[in-house]
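Notes from hallway chat w/ T.B., transcribed later so I don't forget. T.B. wanted the structure written out for a chain they're using in a teaching module, and asked if we could keep both sequence and structure tokens in one place. Agreed to drop them here.
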Amino acid sequence: MALTKVLITVKTYPTLSAKYDELVCTAGFKEDGSWIRLYPVPFRKKSYNEQYKKYDWIEVDLVKNTSDFRPDSFRPKTLESEIKVVGHIDTSNNWEQRKKICLGKIYYNLTELISEAKNKEICTSLAVFKPTEILDFTAEKVEREWDKDKIARLNQLNLFETNKEGKFEVVQKLPYKFKFHFKDNQGSESRMMIEDWETGQLYWRQLAKYEGDEQKAITDVRKKYFDDFAKTKDLHFFFGTTQAHHHVSHNPFMIIGTFHPKIELQGKLF
């Protein structure tokens, strides 16, 4: 495949892989507005110039990820393939240019979307979803450390070694799952986890600000996602499935990012 240009809109919180060590799932849109998933990407091991931000345009040599049945799943040709940042779309005019690329197709009915995901001919695994009502945003405790056996296996394989800086330090595991509780346009309620890297970064940043007070940090994360995004912004979700749960979970989707321009007043003349 020739160099592919992708607008990055999704970066999930890093996870550990027994094969590749620490990985980030990246997704975004091609120039024609179609979704594409990039996985695996060893993001934090990339050079500074290759560490793309959200809404950067990148160019990378991609091939179909043949180990993944989802049609929009691709991977860099090699883990060392260069990722070149070639542009950026800012938030000017209330995200006007971002909207043109990202909001080509929006789902409002979760049952309809799940049906498309389960249909093997369509196999939708990435989508933009507009909730009708946000009911809550919560934090649930989970295991605080990565699996010790997995860490030990990765250390044995020297997968955490870097060329010059010594031992690669794996990212901290989040001790909470953050979830949105929302309704779709049929009134159906769902609770879905958000895996956005920015959610985790916000938690760690506020935890440091409050000198380790987890409840204060959680309160600030909730203020951002519930009091701000859900109540004052035109909030859309970026949804994605995991390969392991795509065909077996009742609802295989999780929230992998948010799209949150300001609410525009209808009927403006100018």
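Follow-up for T.B.: The first strand starts at residue 3 and ends at 11. Might be a good example for the class.
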